[in-house]
Write a structure and sequence with these properties.
Helix content: 55-70%
Shape: elongated
Oligomer: single chain
Structural class: mainly alpha
CATH superfamily of the largest domain: Winged helix-like DNA-binding domain superfamily/Winged helix DNA-binding domain
Low-confidence stretches: none
Strand content: 5-15%
CATH class of the largest domain: Mainly Alpha
Number of domains: 2
CATH topology of the largest domain: Arc Repressor Mutant, subunit A
């Protein structure tokens, strides 16, 4: 990872990476190391190899690999093969936040499918349990529709020159 110009910048950079670890990690339900990795890649001016990420995190190769896979699954990081270079590199996606939202939408759709299946097989349950399953279905149906709208609005916003919602 490129080094900061002076010790003050390096300290600020390290604090920011730690802050990412705590805040993004907690908010996204990720381990703190995944949050730190997100911060490292987001702030890196160039793609990084797994060895570079391992060194920057002070982690084992297995842990660094596991955290990169987690971030790839969540739509924020890509693994890229550079022609002529033996090792793949990892890069923060330009559309990482849309990727993250798309991952949340996919997970919510899976829960909606579960709610539909459960509701369809609830005929012999007591009214209280049927109501709970109906409520679950209503919630996830609502959430899928809302997340689809949010994702569409966010993508439209990204396409505007100033980053503001088109009128």
């Amino acid at each position: 990872m490129p080094h900061a110009a002076n010790d003050g910048e390096a300290t600020d950079h390290s604090r920011l990476i730690e802050d990412f670890g705590v805040r993004i990690g907690r908010a996204m339900g990720w381990p703190p190391m995944a949050g730190r990795l997100a911060g490292i890649l987001m702030l890196s001016p160039a793609p990084m190899t797994l060895s570079e990420l391992q060194h920057a995190l002070g982690a084992s190769k297995g842990s660094a690999s596991e955290m990169t896979r987690l971030l790839m699954t969540h739509g924020t990081v890509d693994r890229v093969k550079v022609p002529g270079v033996r090792q793949a590199v990892y890069v923060w996606r330009d559309d990482a936040w849309a990727g993250c939202l798309h991952h949340q939408l996919d997970q919510t759709r899976l829960l909606l499918e579960l709610a539909e299946t459960a509701r369809d097989h609830s005929g012999r349950l007591a009214p209280t349990q049927r109501t709970r399953l109906r409520d679950m279905h209503a919630f996830y149906d609502f959430m899928v529709r809302q997340l689809e709208g949010v994702l569409d609005a966010y993508k439209r916003r990204l396409r505007t020159p100033d980053g503001h919602e088109p009128r």
